[in-house]
Each structure stands twice: as structure tokens, then as C-alpha cells.
Request: fold
Amino acid sequence: MLIPSALLPRDGRFGSGPSKVPANHLSFDATWMGTSHRKAPVKDVVGRIREGLHDLFRLPHGYEVALGNGGASLLWDAIPFCLVEDRPRAATFGQFSTKAANALRTNPMVSDPVIDSAEPGTALLPRTSEGVDSYLYPHNETSTGAMLPVKRIGGPEALTIVDATSAAGGVDFDAAEVDVYYFSPQKCFASDGGLWFAALSPAAIERIERLTAERWVPDILNMKLALDSSRKNQTLNTPALATLHLMLAQLEWMLEEGGLRAMDARTQASSAIVYDWAQRTDWAHPFVEKQHRSQVVATIDIDLPADEVSAVCRASGIVDIDGYRGLGRNQLRVATFPAVEPADITALLESLTWVGQQLPQS
Ligand SMILES: *Cc1c(COP(=O)(O)O)cnc(C)c1O
Reply:
């Protein structure tokens, strides 16, 4: 069974990680590929990314952008070494936030983590309690499509640390509300994987400097070394230059289009198309409770076999709309990242409606 080509989106990539990469970002003057990351052409790209993120996020005075190799997953292990004194409190409500919390549980520097958990499909901020020195939660839980506001938690002595991997660049927020806002570039920034980026507040920088001076920290997890390299527009070890190129291309496009407010409006409009369709379609139901529905990753429970729907779509060129495997629901998951054209979302849903007319309902 193949979806009629008149219904199909122009670009069929709707994956929640990695994101669709815009085709025009892949044809570029690549003469600086294969040159030293310690020299000007590459350092200029890193510098433009750091400045561009400053502008895009409207970072307050004193905030700095750091980067390094390893993606957001590496920071899950670096954070307990470099940012958590002893007593973190973290919220979990899906696979990514649970992995982040597990890195706190198992780290030898952390004696007493407190975890607040909620069911997938809902979301919660960590609760406050005495003596907590760092609060951690995801901006957008990519495995379930549940989103939270970025909001400072606890008193002035506590840091607020947000895994923004799938939200950063697609959802507006106030950077003054967060000390560490970290992400990988292969989601809203439509780049390739491999790097992490973090916007760090002065309090976070102070914490990193103090803890890494006091403790043994493996170099690759040492955020002070990462910060030192970042200040020179470099990375501790060799980065993927294509990832940097794609990141900069998307970032410059975002700024030209009107920055974070424009991206926020775009992802809100795209996700509304998906949720409105699910509400109109008798075999589709939004998974996440209304107040936490993500504007960048829409999850839709369906009454048709999701693997069959996904297989028909894949054969027709619509890819990566499967639910998160670890969640184990009969679900479709559609990224409405900035790189995805709203018209393609509409065409995707027309295609799904067609598939629904062909398959027997269960
Ligand atoms: C994708 C994702 C990660 C992991 O990113 P990697 O670059 O693969 O390490 C972490 N957290 C969230 C919320 C994500 O969406």
C-alpha cells in the first residue's frame, strides 16, 4: 500500500531526533572542512554560534555559552561532577528525564538525590525542600511529548538546571529563570549529533569553577575545561565540523526569521495543526494532558496498529513518526521542530487520514 503522491509532504522527515536537516544547508563552501579546529575558519564558526545563541536566547549579562563533545548525554554525567554539590532534586516523567536522574543516582559525588516522578503523559517540576543545591528537569520530555515552563526553583543558593535538548531554539523562555540550559544540536537546531551546548549563568560558572578545583573530575566531563576551551572558540577535543556548520546555518536562519519569538510561534502553529487533527479524527487521541502538550514533539495515541501505519508511511517516504520505543504505547510521534514546514505537517495529516481509511480499525 502506498500513499497517493498528491497527498504526500514535500519532505517526509518528521523525526524527533535527529531532526530533518534543510536541504539547502547541505550545499555549502566546504573548503574549511578538514582544517584545524584551533585555527581561524573553524574558530570563527564556533564564535558565531556562541554569539548567535547569546542573541537568540537573549542571555542576561554574565551568562556564557559553553560547548563540547558528547551530546546532552555526556552532560548527564558531567553535571553531578561539576554542578551538583551533594543534594540534587530532579523531576522525571519519561525516558530522557529518567536517564538524567539515573546519572545523579549512580554518581559517587552525590550522596542524597531526591527524585520526583510523574507518569508519562503528565509533567511536573521538582518540588522544593531544605538543603537542595540543584534542581533538574527537562524543558521538553522528548519520549512522551510533555513540556514544562522554564522556571527558577528554590532559593538563591540553588541552581536550576534544565535539559532543553528538544526544546532549545523552538520554545521561547526567559534565560534569567535558569542557570544551566543545555542541549544537543540535532533537534530544533536541525544539525547533526555529537556536540553539547550550554548557556551558563554566573552562579553556574562559579559553581563549576569551585567544584572542579575541589574534586577529581575526568577531563572529558570537566565543564571548567570545556568553558576554558569555549572562551577561545574551541572545544577540548576535535569536534565534528559538519555539525558546527549545520548548527550555524540553522541558527542564522532562526535569527533572520525573527529569533526565538518567531520560532516559538512557528512550532506552536505546527503542533496545533497536529493536535487539532487528532481531536477531529475518531481513531486518534492526543496522549499528553492539555496543559503539558509539547509544541515541538506531538504524541498521538491511535486505535489503528501504529507499526502498520508507520510501515505504510515509511514505504511512501514519510519517516520516523514512530512512538518512542521505550514508552511502549500504540502511538505516533511527530516532531514540529522549526525546520519542519507547516505545509508538510498538513500534508502528513492528510496522508494519515488516507491511511486510516484503508486500514481496518481495531
Ligand atoms: C535527544 C535528547 C537527549 C540526548 O541527546 P544526545 O545528543 O543523544 O546525547 C537528552 N535529553 C533530551 C530531552 C533529548 O531529547
Q: What stands out?
A: The CA atoms of residues 48 and 248 lie 7 Å apart. The first strand starts at residue 64 and ends at 69. The pocket of pyridoxal-5'-phosphate is lined by residues 17, 71-73, 96, 138, 142, 163, 165-166, 184, 187, 193 (CB under 6 Å). The longest helix spans residues 259-280.
